[in-house]
Write a structure and sequence with these properties.
Blueprint lengths: L10 H7 L6 H11 L5 H7 L5 H14 L5 H6 L6 H15 L16
Helix pairs in contact: 1-2, 2-4, 3-4, 4-6
């Protein structure tokens, strides 16, 4: 069955498959596209994943969902070893705060606390 990007029926099955390391990156991205707040706790957990691509996708998904519960965990990603993850975390925080994207002005795209 084909699901539209905002079809909430897909959230449950996606959350269940989040434990499979092969699909975590795609799952995080899909959860962001669906945009349901019920996915926020699992996406916050994914910010600690060992794979940078999963952390990146989870951060972007949280930015798309726009739930303020994600701001503090995203702040912690500003210390991530991967520059792309740090950048995406800063962008996601701006998205959640409704600040949009204004580009990086130095400091590895840090967002003021």
């Amino acid at each position: 069955m084909y699901m539209r990007a905002r079809d909430v029926r897909g959230v449950g099955p996606l959350l269940q498959s989040f434990s499979d390391e092969v699909v975590r990156d795609a799952v995080a991205s899909s959860l962001g596209d669906i945009g349901e707040g019920v996915a926020v706790p699992a996406l916050i957990d994914a910010l600690g994943d060992g794979e940078w691509s999963v952390r990146h996708s989870a951060a972007l998904a949280l930015g798309k969902i726009g739930d303020v519960r994600a701001v503090e965990p995203l702040m912690l990603l500003q210390e991530d070893e991967n520059l792309g993850v740090r950048y995406t975390a800063a962008l996601a925080i701006r998205m959640i705060r409704g600040e949009g994207y204004s580009g990086c002005s130095g400091g590895c795209c840090r967002v003021p606390r």
